[in-house]
Design goal:
The protein is an all-alpha fold. α12 packs antiparallel against α13. The radius of gyration is 20 Å and the shape is globular. The N and C termini lie far apart (53 Å).
């Protein structure tokens, strides 16, 4: 089963790396395309927003197709889009190619989870979904710093590297994943879980958590320029430290979710993330401080990811692929919202203070989680 799941995980690794790696390349992209940093940051926003919106729509439109064929169509569009980005001579062309790439990525995201759930036996379905989702987690830990380092001389090289990974994933899907046919589902059916207030609340927490992260992360290069000296190599070390923290935070979140209520783990992670983000201005002055801070930030922003999945799966086990797909869209909606907000806020505050906005968004997610704890609701009812 692992051999069959590996190409799906690799596909999500490529999508995750592609969606987030631009953040580490913003100064070079801005110089090359003759735009300012906030405008370059909107390349991240455009990709993430197009992904979040297109994933459920394209998933419904292609639901009658064999899942393997859908994955191959998505990977073809994804690879072509990245090649167009690498070749793009102007900001407008690059922006359009990022949106086109996101449509392919949305198809991949829509098909990967349903394919994994279909090819795994029922008793191993959760493990299969976690394996596929692991590709996205690893992209945050390793894909981002590697892509930043590769693109230190020419940011376009990174896009060619991501294109190559997409083609390798396509070959793996073509030869390693069996044909999977599933009942056709309408867009209304895919969005039906959003009528459930509990599901909507959990997805809102995911969105707020990712927005809190990416209001700063999208502009991490300029924000830490005082600590890195503008060196791409030094920034790569900081991003790697953040990635190591992500791996540790994912493991910690999973372990704690086995011992405690997942909602409490999510709450603890968001509160800690808010505190670390509030301290971001203090990390901008020295390289060693930035590395230590980045590790802590990575741990606490990733800690809620696994328990959030646990909460969704436990709420409606029969709708696991759909709910995880919606959660994936919420992740990218949060990335888009954070990137857009960070670009706007730079008009009113120094980029080094964006962490304070991130802290506020993470705190809002924590408050929403806290308000939905059963004992809190019962206490509020007793007060009324």
């Amino acid at each position: 089963m692992f051999v069959r799941l590996l190409p799906l995980s690799l596909a999500l690794f490529a999508v995750g790396t592609d969606g987030f790696v631009i953040a580490g390349l913003l100064p070079a992209i801005a110089r090359d395309l003759d735009v300012d940093i906030p405008a370059a940051g909107q390349l991240v926003t455009a990709f993430a927003l197009a992904f979040a919106v297109s994933a459920p729509v394209l998933g419904a439109a292609t639901s009658a197709l064999d899942r393997r064929r859908t994955m191959l169509i998505g990977l073809a569009g994804f690879s072509v889009g990245n090649a167009l980005t690498a070749l793009g001579p102007t900001y407008a062309v690059v922006l359009g190619s990022r949106v086109f790439t996101a449509l392919g990525a949305g198809l991949i995201g829509a098909a990967a989870f349903s394919t994994a759930a279909a090819i795994a036996p029922p008793e191993r379905q959760g493990r299969a979904l976690a394996t596929v989702m692991g590709g996205l987690s690893i992209s945050m830990a390793l894909g981002l710093p590697a892509g930043t380092l590769i693109g230190s001389a020419d940011w376009r090289v990174t896009l060619w590297a991501v294109t190559a990974v997409g083609l390798v994933a396509a070959a793996g899907v073509a030869f390693g994943v069996p044909p999977v046919s599933l009942p056709s589902t309408s867009l209304r059916a895919r969005l039906r879980p959003l009528r459930d207030p509990s599901v909507l609340g959990m997805l809102a927490v995911t969105l707020l958590a990712l927005a809190g992260t990416h209001v700063l992360y999208t502009y991490i290069g300029p924000a830490l320029e005082g600590a890195t000296g503008g060196s791409a190599t030094t920034l790569t070390v900081v991003l790697l430290a953040w990635g190591v923290g992500n791996v540790a935070g994912n493991a910690l979140g999973g372990a704690l979710s086995d011992r405690h209520a997942p909602s409490r783990v999510v709450l603890a992670g968001l509160v800690a993330a808010a505190l670390v983000l509030a301290a971001a201005p203090l990390a901008a002055g020295a390289f060693v401080t930035a590395v230590v801070w980045a590790i802590a930030w990575g741990v606490f922003v990733s800690m809620p990811i696994v328990p959030q999945q646990h909460r969704l799966v436990a709420h409606a086990p029969g709708a696991t692929p759909v709910l995880l797909g919606l959660n994936n869209s919420a992740i990218y909606a949060g990335v888009a919202a954070g990137g857009a907000l960070g670009g706007i806020l730079q008009q009113a505050m120094p980029v080094t203070l964006l962490g304070l906005a991130g802290a506020a968004l993470s705190a809002a997610g924590a408050l929403l989680t806290w308000a939905r704890l059963p004992q809190v609701r019962s206490q509020l009812r007793s007060c009324v």
